[in-house]
Design a protein that fits this description.
Helices cover 43% and strands 10% of the residues. The protein contains 15 helices and seven strands. Strands 1, 4, 5 and 6 form a four-stranded mixed β-sheet that branches. A three-stranded antiparallel β-sheet has the order 3-2-7, with no helix packed on it. It is globular, with a radius of gyration of 25 Å. It starts with 5 loop residues before the first helix and ends with a helix.
């Protein structure tokens, strides 16, 4: 970090801030939740986008963000929506706990805060689904607060600027401290803290790329220690990850007498909570014996194991899902569930895993 007073360091950072701000004004991304100039950001839109962007890319989020706004234009609209409708609209984004927490958060904001978002990090962090990063991002972007916003893109920029060679995640605290030191100091109107946060994120997303960083067009290249040392592209270093285990399960493709297919809604708690699925066994690391899988099936049937398996990767494990096909004696025999015609399956809000399972069954069950 070097020696000198805090005031000296702030003076040294001033040209860097000016260059970054000028770059952002010219090259910052146009995103559906972003506003420019004197227009004030809508906290609801900022919050909605930040929740959706957790673990999900900008191109994927865009259409979902527009669809949610069209369906629920205000936080009050979202709070009063059935949670099943919110989960169905979320289908395909993954990490479904985000949707459940988002719906709960909207209700808390309407019930406890009269529909008005808190404007500081501490109170934002008390809301469901809002952690340290999301609270900082909302505080900076929606309310102009001086908040230390550090996502994966910013981590990369900061690790390269200061040539941090300690691998992540061990280096996270160090990188956050260095990022905090970059924050402008002064009136928010002068330094536009929301723009500063978004400029750092955009710099990582479009210039300071994981592979092939575009140092020739980077507004911060002159003071980048990683570039000077010739190691920028190797940073940030990553500690070796433990291998993901593989779990296994059986999904049941159940056809009724009229050709309809049985679906059911998963319990609200747990992975894919509240989402529609083909009825399935638990997912475990040991193989399912034929007798065990038959006992777990929701109906009695002459089961036909379909060739191949459906593979899907979650955050902490790989899944191999066998699909068995069978015919129910009557629609009521399967108990609680939803019978859906085959030509309606494409219109349903199914999670990606179950879309794979349905496609597998349609191709192999001839």
């Amino acid at each position: 970090m070097g020696k000198g007073t805090t005031q000296d360091r702030r003076k040294a950072q001033a040209p860097r801030h000016d260059r970054l701000r000028a770059w952002y004004d010219r090259y910052g991304r146009d995103l559906p939740w972003r506003v420019r100039g004197a227009e004030r950001p809508d906290p609801y839109r900022v919050w909605l986008s930040e929740i959706m962007l957790q673990q999900t890319t900008v191109p994927t989020v865009g259409p979902y963000f527009r669809a949610f706004l069209q369906r629920w234009p205000t936080v009050a609209d979202l709070a009063t929506a059935p949670v099943e409708a919110v989960l169905d609209a979320w289908a395909g984004l993954g990490y479904y706990a985000r949707a459940r927490n988002m719906h709960r958060c909207a209700q808390v904001i309407c019930c406890d805060f009269a529909g008005i978002f808190p404007d500081d990090e501490a109170r934002l962090r008390e809301l469901p689904g809002i952690g340290p990063y999301t609270a900082a991002a909302i505080a900076a972007i929606a309310f102009g607060r001086r908040a230390n916003v550090v996502d994966g893109n910013v981590e990369r920029v900061v690790a390269r600027l200061f040539a941090v060679e300690t691998p992540l995640p061990v280096a996270k605290a160090q990188v956050r401290e260095l990022a905090a030191g970059l924050l402008p100091a002064g009136p928010a109107a002068d330094f536009r803290y929301g723009d500063f946060a978004q400029a750092m994120m955009d710099l990582g997303a479009t210039v300071c790329l994981p592979r092939g960083p575009r140092c020739d067009v980077c507004p911060l290249a002159e003071g980048c220690a990683g570039r000077t040392a010739g190691i920028a592209e190797t940073l940030p270093r990553q500690a070796a990850k433990a291998p993901r285990p593989t779990r296994r399960g059986v999904a049941f493709w159940i056809e009724g007498p009229d050709g309809a297919i049985l679906l059911r809604r998963r319990p609200r708690r747990g992975l894919l909570g509240g989402m529609l699925e083909l009825p399935s066994t638990d997912w475990r690391e040991t193989d399912w014996l034929l007798a065990e899988a038959r006992a777990a099936a929701p109906v009695r049937a002459e089961w036909r194991p379909l060739p191949g398996v459906v593979r899907h990767t979650f955050t902490h494990f790989h899944l191999e899902l066998a699909v068995w096909a069978g015919t129910a004696a009557s629609g009521g025999a399967a108990g609680a569930g939803l019978w859906v015609r085959r030509d309606e399956l494409d219109d349903l809000a199914l999670p990606t895993l179950m879309r794979k399972a349905v496609a597998h069954a349609l191709v192999t069950d001839n």
